[in-house]
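hey so i finally got around to running the thing on that chain from the lab meeting. sorry it took forever, my laptop kept dying and i had to restart like 3 times. anyway pasting the input first so we r on the same page abt which one it is
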Amino acid sequence: MSERKLTPEEIKELFAFCCKHRVYQYDLQIELIDHLASSIENYWIIEPEISFNQALNKTYKSFGENGFSKIKAEKEKALRKKYNRLLWRFVGEYFKLPKIILTIAISLVLFTLLQFSNIQAFLVVSYLILFLPFGLIYYFYLFPKYFQIKVIPGKSFLLINYLKKFDDSFLFMSWIPVNSFPFFNLLKHTNNSWVNLLVAVTLTFVTIVVYASCFFVPQKVREHFTREFPQFVKS
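ok and heres what got predicted. didnt touch it at all, straight out
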């Protein structure tokens, strides 16, 4: 006797079962359904007489009292870890050859500027001029045009929800100059080359991290989504 397998109608029921338990994201659903299907078919090997619903209920109980919520949380955590690794790997490249040459050059330019009197005020104004408008441009134009993914109606994805969080990166960019006032006020009363060098390197590092967060990682998320789910991308 051949092993019993799920029918297309039963797989549709698994999708409905996921929605019933508040799992609406398609990319999470297919992972859960793969696990559910495998478990149900294993139950049928041991107990071939039980029905689809009985095997499904046994499988669901095996998830524990938190049901699918724990798996969803683990998936979200895995996404964050995956793209955080990409971000810091990208940032790390700017501290290795050949990109470290650019990092050193930018740091030296900032260090030289900091050595002049009253340059701290210039840097504060520069940050206000550059970061605040750029944050708004990124939020209203750059992100929607280059990184936002439009999917066909009726579909939700965990990866899309994660990508949307980068649209709030302008808040981080706005936070930088506002919270820099005490920092630069300290510099104004400190004429120390080592402090100026530390500040120059810090500003360079922050700039690289902002660039990675706003451009590199969102582009990677977009590439991964369009590669895995091209059929759901709205043209």
